[in-house]
Amino acid sequence: MKTIYNDLTSILNAENIKTNEPLSNHTFTKTGGKGDLIITPKTYQEVQNVYKYSLKHNIPTTILGNGSNLIIKDGGIRGIVLILTTMNNIHLSNNKIKAQSGAGIIEVSRFALKNSLSGLEFACGIPGSIGGALHMNAGAYGGVVSDVLQEALVLDTNGDFLTLSKNEMELDYRKSSIAQNGYLVLEATFGLTPGNFNEIKTKMDDLTFLRESKQPLEYPSCGSVFKRPPGYFAGKLIQDSGLQGKQIGGAQVSKKHAGFIVNVGSATSTDYLKLISYIQNTVNAKFGVVLEPEVKILGED
Known about the structure:
This protein is α+β, with helices and mostly antiparallel strands. Helices cover about 30% and strands about 25% of the residues. The model has no long low-confidence stretch (mean pLDDT about 95).
């Protein structure tokens, strides 16, 4: 580990490398074990250099954004963890917004509002990063990233830069070729429509009110835990199974919105995973529906 650390200090500043860091500091659930080496690069070149170094030396590498739709197991993550939230620049050019992968999609929607551009209103309450939003084609309130996404700059599995068109990303419900091919998102370009500032703001305010009134934002959580099964709503199935308030350790099915699992006090990732399994088994037994996790699960037990 010391050799790897020393090698990495020749690639980027030592202040951007941490060892044995609790990953609970980097997840919305406030759970997760430790990461061997946490890297917070500042430039695309640094990302590429670290990634190519990891490939050359066969070091497992995990990419994280802001840890919103994520559970990291209590055993943590071995090897290198690249956290991209330090790359969060957003800029405007001819009604197009270019945003780095570590920028919050909420911040990008606010930037669009500031410039009276319409198309990202739906994203005003999505807590994820741009990289994560592209990875799973994030959406809310009738809108999805694929509605306005034009292209993305990524690293491919060889560590080479690659620009993908919207079609090449094969965006579908919580799916993309980015996830399927293991690409690393560096930047996204969104094509938006000039609009009226007050109308855009009113829509965003309305969506924010809906989110705050329905979602348990007062507790740490990983957001919506399950994908929507065809013909059903996951939260409704969980509620109708009598599971609201069900608790394992410090993890609880939210009493406010059954599609969320909240950390009501010192929950572990193991608590989360046990509760997820319990919910799946209960809903399947009662309704014959298999709930598939939307949340990404990483790390070792």
